[in-house]
Amino acid sequence: MLKKSFTETQAFQQLQSAFAQIQAVHLTQLFEQDAERFNRYRKEWGPLLFDPSKTHLNDAVFQAMHALADELQLSQSFADMCSGVAINETENRAVLHTALRKGPDAEVMVQGKNVIPEIHAVLNKMRVFSDAVINGERRGYSGKAFTDIVNIGIGGSDLGPVMVCEALKHYQVPHLQMHFVSNVDGAHLVETLKRLNPETTLFLIASKTFTTQETMANAHSARTWVLKHYGDEAAIAAHFVAISTASTEVAAFGIGLDQMFGFWDWVGGRYSLWSAIGLSICLAVGYSHFEQLLAGALFVDEHTLQCDFEDNIPMQMAMIGMWYTHFFHYPTYAVIPYDQYLHRFPAYLQQADMESNGKSVDRNGKPVTYATGPIIWGEPGTNGQHAFFQLMHQGTHIIPADFIVAARPLHDLPMHHDILLSNCFAQSEAFMTGKTAAQVKQELAARGMTTAEIERHTPFRVFEGNRPSCTFIIEQLTPYTLGILIALYEHKIFFQGLLWNIYSFDQWGVELGKKLASAILPEIQDKHKSLQHDAGTNGLIQHIRTKSDM
Ligand code: F6P
Prior knowledge:
The protein contains 22 helices and 13 strands. The protein is an alpha/beta fold and 550 residues long.
């Protein structure tokens, strides 16, 4: 793998001159210059349409991006990742979430061993288990069928499964309710368990390491809740399963290895929903839908391997993101699904993207001299329109956005879907075209305002426009198309890591806070312990010590 960034390439000069040409060009001018722009840039691939035509692309920019992709060998690096090369060098690991989507006949070698048979053995165990819980064969300790599943996990062991279970609610098994507990704030567990019956509740303890403080605290409290009800240790085996790579820690918790669903260190936490971490998904929607999710992601893996820059959607998404982060200096990027089922998609992407590319040291150990991963955020449309869109339309920050919508709804309220679609398309149109002072004046005059009134009101009603966006249209939200969407963003993140020459698959930045929290915990529990922090932190701890006396 090359260890140079986009700024160290020859293509970078090409991009700089393309930028100099296009930076002052309004997006509407690009459409005036080329009415075929939509057809030129949109890509249709299976059930997906990707439209980047409302971004600052032209032939020169596109060619420079293509040259950059070639010079940085993006395709080769993707192939390396998929074939098991240990590209996560800071943790000395392969990165193989793509292997999790492959069929049983594939071969992916890690340290001389084909990992595909193990993957399919775990998938088979997930299928048998989820079928048995769904059809009531697998029951609680007192013989009652399960009605509620509680997944206890955090970060990648929570966000991916929650997002998918919410997204696929339409396909949900009706007699099993899913719950997700992630926060160590006891309120999360207490409020979840309040309405549940221990005899009909199954807990999935999902943790790659099985040492994460929040998950272990929640798992122990859940265990106490079950034990308190039954007064019998033997009940635990019937009500708890573990999903982890750490069999020793799982056994120490008291869950037998037959009750454990394993995965491997080459599955990153934020890329793990395709592994046994997806057990909650199998239980929520049935194993065959989980298989469809994997198939959608595999479709994108193959697309990404086969297509060069001209057709490669994740590669183009990555370039457009870099284009706005580095050249235009736009520090945030919004993802706006016009789909209520996708309401957790932006939250999921925050971890996937920001934990991967929130780095400031390059792969040579040197500080980077350019902005890396943007701040990812978003909410579903149309809700966002009545919240933060004002700033996106008329604020001082320009925020590129991805709009995601399905052509056909899953419900039978067609009027609602027509309204949803019209809003989605209207927003990207408004972001791009804006409204000039002349248009505003004409409108106000038509409403009968005096000249003085028009002059007074016009400045507030002008929209500059020129706000870029990409639109993604899927045919319908299914497990397959959801798999497509997720994998597109996974690979975008991968390619951006290459452009920025950073390691996308470690997360050292979350360690410091964890370590300090372990030091502070005993200081909160024992108020006589001396405090060795900065004066501000000491002050906060002292304050809490006085409050806990009250
Ligand atoms: O936030 C740090 C992190 O390590 C994530 O990368 C991971 O998804 C999360 O914690 C949970 O880790 P685990 O699955 O080991 O409990």
